[in-house]
Write a structure and sequence with these properties.
heterodimer, A: TIM Barrel, 2 domains, 9 strands, about 5% strand, B: about 140 residues, 5-stranded parallel beta sheet
Chain lengths: ~600, ~140
């Protein structure tokens, strides 16, 4: 995305309309416009790029310029001259029609006219009993699917009564220790009819096993279950940092779920390859796009190495993006993502099945963009971000609650967030036509630049030997840390304005928030004590021993396409059925695989 | 040499299970750019590890970043350990998402300042400069 060099002729460079001619070939009529209409207008009213020219918003000549929130320079006007010369003649290569390759305009021929996106609100707090109530509330108010937020001990594979869990139980999500908790969490919710997404990564196979057993106990058919486990360990090393085991065994566990899924749960997404957390950690929009899709490439490579067929597991790969404040940059990112994935699956991995080449994604509005100051302003931010996700063609959407910079959302804040989606869906009219912004010079140029920028990153990381190698070198981590520091500097210099935080500030009173105390830890510990007294601890030990044995072996796909004997999923399911806890199962795997320690980059 | 000797030394630490380290890293870099000596511990440090590191590194300030809500469990343990090590002269500041209702309790426990989301880096730098007297190193 480097800015084109200005002409060396200083006379031209000094002209206020020089940028119209830089690195592009405007039509005669555009030249006329620049000279006759634009030049006098600039004379009368000079442009004023936002903020001071102290570093981030300045070009190589020291002039202030307009940039996206990611620091990408933005032109005054986009016209045909910004698109490739063969834009019209090779339209099927660039755009084509919705539901047709390369899917720039969306994966459905009729967009949202047949079916709206799924309004899937991420929720979870305190005990499984309380979260179960919130789920019933969300479903009763028009939420289309569930999305489980687990607390940090669960995410890190610790039981609620572990020393490391002190102070963390039920704080950032719901505490789940055993199958018993999962049964409570989904009590009265028909899992064959409700799709459920679970944000769980390192212990994903354990929580998924619990989910499958609960569904089975409800009498549901595994083949009919729809839902998603996040199960994206690579972005944990890159951004969110909730890893347990080192990369290689972690990747093996992920591929075990792919393999298991193709045999037993054909409608369940066994991974949600996530850019969300990469963006939250401070990346640019392009970095989010590039690192996420390249994570996808790495998963495919590892699955192929196992001996799986890309057209067997490929259709179950799903993605998850962030939607930030910079409206057009985000829409361009979403549109480019589909095209990039299509190109990779077709050309790099030779997928034959069209389903494999389709990128489907979930979107969440940007938590990182929310302010603790004047929190009601966040409702406006979320609406803009949600609108971008819809115009980008998302399959499902979570809208953040306005109070999320302060705490987990109150019930009222969560309802307003859902209502924001409903206003977009039913009042704004944007869902009535497919890809309404397609063909906009500006958006199409941004989309093309996103695609090019992503492939440039892919080349760099291919040269490093893939994403696991790049992570071990700290490459994506460094890129993100640098971008987040630059953004913070721009904010401090008021080159980027955050309304209510670095400008338009007022004195205000504290906002009412959801407060979670330590009772949850006591409640969960009591349940665990009773469970350990009630269950057969011998059966638990037998199941854990069998799991360790399988985990220590190299899984190999059999010649008759049957699942590898050493696939860990059936053993985890057995352990779950015996009511082994999350902590016990993760501990067993730690004994085999060890734990990962990162080298910190600042 | 005098300048180096007088540099304020800061330990930036992430206690608890939370892995959200964007803030901690940005602050570490901002303090370093402001001329302070910064040691970043990395993730998932126990109170014992943090206080030990602070002692070893002979810091003037401990900056803790907690976004998970575990501050009420972690802060008192850090302060206790510091008292045991007679580190009352080391200033503790806290950053992250801290509910307003916990502020009094944290202040009583000895936390010098709590910096919530959106705090300008300059404000944190200024607070440290104003409230910490660099200890001169005895030759």
């Amino acid at each position: 995305m480097a800015r084109d060099k200005k002409p060396t002729d200083s006379g031209v460079a000094e002209s206020p309309i020089a940028d119209v001619f830089e690195g592009r070939h405007p039509s005669e009529s555009e030249k006329q416009w620049a000279e006759k209409t634009l030049a006098p207008a600039l004379e009368k009213q000079p442009e004023r790029p936002i903020g001071a020219a102290t570093g981030v918003n300045i070009d190589e000549h020291g002039h202030a310029r307009f940039t996206t929130i990611s620091g990408v320079p933005i032109r005054r006007l986009y016209t045909q001259a910004d698109l490739p010369e063969d834009w019209e003649t090779n339209n099927d290569k660039y755009l084509n029609y919705p539901g047709q390759a390369p899917y720039t305009r969306g994966i459905h021929a009729s967009g949202y006219r047949g079916r709206l996106w799924t309004m899937r609100q991420f929720a979870g707090f305190s005990s499984p009993e309380e979260t179960n109530q919130r789920y019933k509330y969300l479903l009763a108010h028009g939420g289309g699917g569930l999305s489980v937020a687990f607390d940090l001990p669960t995410l890190m594979g610790y039981d609620s009564d572990h020393a490391q869990s002190e102070g963390e139980v039920g704080k950032c999500g719901v505490a789940i220790d055993s199958l018993e908790d999962m049964e409570i969490l989904f009590d009265g919710i028909d899992l064959e009819k409700t799709t459920v997404s679970m944000t769980i990564n390192s212990p994903a196979s354990v929580l998924w096993a619990m989910y499958l057993v609960v569904a089975e106990k409800q009498g549901a058919d595994w083949k009919k279950l729809g839902g998603t486990i996040q199960n994206d360990i690579l972005k944990e090393y890159i951004a969110q940092k909730e890893y347990i085991y080192p990369p290689a065994p972690s990747m093996r566990l992920v591929i075990d779920t792919f393999e298991f899924g193709t045999h037993f749960t054909p409608r369940f997404n066994t991974i949600s390859i996530s850019g969300y957390h990469i963006r939250e950690a401070g990346s640019t929009s392009l970095q989010e796009l590039a690192f996420t899709i390249y994570d996808g490439v790495e998963y495919v490579e590892w699955a192929l190495k196992r001996g799986l067929n890309v057209d067997d597991f490929g259709p179950r790969l799903s993605f998850f993006f962030n939607s930030h404040n910079d409206f057009f940059e985000e829409i361009a990112k979403f549109r480019a993502s589909r095209k990039i994935w299509y190109r990779l699956m077709k050309d790099r991995f030779h997928a034959q099945n069209e389903r494999t080449r389709l990128m489907r994604f979930h979107t969440q509005t940007a938590g990182v963009s929310l302010t603790a100051q004047q929190p009601m302003n966040n409702i406006a931010r979320v609406a803009i971000q949600a609108l971008a996700a819809v115009l980008g063609g998302t399959q499902s959407l979570h809208t953040d609650s306005y109070d999320e910079a302060l705490a987990l959302p109150t019930e009222e804040a969560a309802r307003i967030a859902l209502r924001t989606q409903q206003v977009i869906a039913y009042e704004s009219g944007v869902a009535q036509t497919v890809d309404p912004l397609g063909g906009s010079y500006f958006l199409e140029k941004l989309t093309l630049d996103m695609e090019k920028g992503a492939f440039d990153y892919f080349d760099k990381m291919d040269a490093m030997g893939g994403m696991v190698k790049a992570i071990e070198r700290g490459y994506p981590q460094k890129e993100i840390a640098e971008a987040s520091y630059q953004f913070q500097r721009a904010t401090e210099a008021k080159e980027k304005i955050t309304v209510g935080t670095n400008d338009f500030i007022i004195e205000e009173n504290p906002t009412k928030i959801l407060y979670i105390g330590e009772e949850v830890a006591i409640h969960q510990t009591a349940k665990l004590n009773k469970l350990r007294a009630r269950r057969s601890n011998e059966a638990v030990q037998r199941a854990l021993d069998a799991l360790k044995k399988a985990a220590a072996q190299e899984p190999v796909v059999k010649s008759n396409h049957q699942m590898s004997d050493a696939n860990t999923m059936p053993y985890i399911i057995d352990a779950v059925r015996a009511y082994a806890t999350v902590g016990e199962i993760c501990e067993a795997l730690k004994e085999v695989y060890g734990v990962y320690e990162e080298v910190s980059v600042t | 040499m005098t300048n180096t000797d007088q540099k304020i030394r800061v330990l930036v630490a992430k206690p608890g299970l939370d892995g959200h380290d964007r803030g901690a890293k940005v602050i570490a870099r901002a303090l370093r750019d402001a001329g302070m000596e910064v040691i970043y511990t990395g993730l998932r440090q126990t109170p014992e590890m943090i206080v030990n590191a602070a002692l070893q590194e002979d810091v003037d300030v401990i900056g803790l970043s907690i976004l998970s809500g575990a501050h009420n469990a972690i802060i008192p343990r850090v302060m206790d350990l510091m008292r045991q090590q007679k580190m009352e002269d080391v200033m503790v500041v806290l950053g992250g998402t801290i509910p307003a209702q916990d502020l009094d309790q944290l202040s009583k426990a000895g936390v010098a300042a709590v910096f919530g989301p959106g705090t300008p880096m300059q404000e944190i730098i200024q607070f440290i400069r104003t409230n910490v007297k660099p200890r001169s190193v005895t030759a």
